[in-house]
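Page 42, continued from yesterday. The earlier attempt failed because a stray header line got pasted into the input along with the sequence. Redoing it now with the clean sequence only.
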Amino acid sequence: MNIIVNSIFVQDQEKALAFYMEKLGFVKKEDVPVGKHRWLTLVSPDDLEGTELLLEPDEHPAAKDYQRRIFAEGIPATMFGVADLEKEYSRLLEKGVEFTLKPTKAGEVTIAVFNDTCGNLIQIIQK
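This time it went through. Structure tokens are written below.
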């Protein structure tokens, strides 16, 4: 069994697509109309056949509540791995990404957290 798609709730699919592509550098994989929304996935440019990130509308009340609550508690919605966290942190700062946690050692790893501007906190980690 493999993880092929992981979803993240977003307030606005088009805004999320722009952020994840322009700021983070992900590549659009799927873009299929589904009613008034889209099946909209992204992949890492380093692994075009890898796990897809689904930008899922937060339209359902449970999704909105979940997203709002974990954001308010400072809990990241998901985590992305990076090879060099300090380098990635600097690159994202230059692109205007706002961090809520600067690079911080946490045992054997280094982490940082940023706001994706679409209702989520995202953690990046260097193992």
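Notes: The CA atoms of residues 110 and 126 lie 5 Å apart.
Reminder to self: strip header lines before submitting.
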